[in-house]
Design goal:
The structure is a single chain. The chain is mostly helical and 160 residues long. The protein is built from 4 helices and no strands. Helix 2 runs antiparallel to helix 3. The radius of gyration is 20 Å and the shape is elongated. The termini are far apart.
Length: 160
């Protein structure tokens, strides 16, 4: 019987733990993102009527592909409404990055579901673009949340 090469043996010994570590970090990032999204929805609820706690429905597989578009619309409407109320300019209110993230999420899910029909390089490219867009969306959303929280804290009777 042939002995595995040292690099292959090392990969087999450490591969699963590395995979679990990456998945744990990704889950942590998703939870932190959903907290940011939920806080932003709570700060802008008067402009859309969606409870911030409903962001946790994003953890439901397949359903999240549809729910993400609904939440994107609601949070954008809320940011635009609240910033207009405060006399601030929200620009696109992170709509562009959010839409790109939603579309790439759907594209990645389809590519993974098709498995053998989609080359691995395409799946990886979609995943890399999705990660970049998601981080940009999260960054913009967190910026709006900070601004809105600051205004809520300084408003008479307001709290963040």
């Amino acid at each position: 019987m042939l002995e595995p090469q040292p690099m292959v043996a090392m990969h087999l010994a450490h591969g699963p733990a590395w995979t679990w570590a990456v998945l744990a970090l990704l889950l942590l990032a998703v939870v932190l993102f959903l907290r940011t999204l939920g806080a932003t929805l709570r700060l802008t609820r008067a402009h859309h009527g969606v409870a911030g706690g409903l962001v946790w429905l994003m953890l439901l597989p397949t359903f999240n592909l549809f729910w993400q578009f609904f939440l994107l619309h609601q949070v954008t409407k809320g940011i635009r409404g609240r910033t207009r109320e405060l006399g601030l300019d929200a620009g696109g209110a992170a709509w562009g990055w959010g839409l790109v993230t939603c579309l790439l999420s759907c594209a990645w899910s389809i590519a993974v579901a098709l498995d053998a029909e989609v080359p691995d390089a395409v799946v990886r490219a979609i995943a890399a673009a999705l990660l970049a867009a998601w981080l940009a969306y999260w960054w913009r959303l967190a910026g709006f949340r900070r601004v809105l929280a600051r205004h809520a804290a300084t408003a008479p009777g307001g709290s963040a």
